[in-house]
Amino acid sequence: MHETFRLLLAGILLLAPLPVQTGLQVAPFSSIELPGGGHVVLQRAPTQRVTLVRGSLDYTRLAVADGGRLVIDKCFRKCPSGYRLELEILTPGAAGISLANGGSIQTRGSFPRQSELAVAVSHGGIIDVRSMVVDRVTASVDQGGRILTVPQASLLARVHQGGVITYWGNAQVRQTVEHGGVVSRGSADEISLPLSDIGPQLLHPIRKHGSGR
Question: Please, what are the domains in the chain?
Answer without folding.
Answer: 20-203 (2.160.20)
